[in-house]
Design goal:
Layout: H1 9-15, H2 21-41, H3 46-63, H4 76-97, H5 104-116, H6 122-142, H7 148-158, H8 163-170, H9 174-199
Length: about 200
């Protein structure tokens, strides 16, 4: 998949106006899930990832009026990931400073948790999570258009099961499984293209 996607310039300029609540809602609907996914990828708990997501959106609300979009200096997505990365680093430092106030058991649990938090290289994090975000967003958009059988077949295939295994489990012909897979792949490709166009 081509990963040279950029945020729609017009939307970025719209959200620079803090009074444009409609554009802000559109922006947060697009990016809330991505911010959360990046945070979760750093091994934060659901609760902490949600907190980072909320903090990042507040930071964006504050910073976007002064943001100047320049592709030569990098994508908006890179800038966003930098914000998330710094927030996670600060989160770990803040939690680490609190360790001395905890009893031994709580201190051990918190330290073990902090040891598992990872902050990968920015570029790797940005591209990997963006592609996952696109695929997941596309799936969420199309899954309601599929029959239960088609959806179930595709999910089994997505988990790595063979066409033959899915055919046997669902009691459908092998050729039908092929058709189901192709149908979903075509819908996903169309939806991803639409999403990329919306963000480009």
């Amino acid at each position: 998949m081509n990963t040279t996607y950029a945020t729609r310039k017009s939307l970025l300029y719209k959200v620079k106006d803090q009074q444009d609540l409609k554009s802000w809602d559109e922006f947060t609907n697009l990016y809330r899930r991505y911010i959360y996914m990046v945070a979760r990828n750093m091994n934060l708990t659901h609760h902490d990832a949600e907190d980072i997501t909320q903090r990042a959106l507040i930071k964006l609300w504050e910073k976007l009026p002064d943001f100047e979009y320049d592709r030569c200096r990098g994508t908006f997505r890179s800038w966003l990931c930098t914000i998330i990365r710094h927030m996670v680093i600060n989160f770990v430092k803040r939690k680490a400073r609190m360790l001395t106030t905890l009893d031994d058991e709580e201190k051990s649990l918190t330290q073990n948790y902090l040891n598992k938090v990872t902050v990968p290289e920015l570029k790797m994090l940005e591209e990997r999570e963006w592609n996952t975000f696109l695929l997941n967003s596309a799936w969420e958009s199309i899954k309601g258009q599929l029959t239960d059988k088609v959806r179930e077949a595709y999910l089994l295939l997505h988990k790595g099961q063979s066409l033959e295994s899915v055919s046997e489990q669902l009691g459908i012909k092998l050729n039908t499984v092929y058709v189901y897979r192709l149908r979903v792949q075509q819908k996903l490709a169309k939806e991803i293209t639409s999403l990329v166009n919306k963000l480009s």
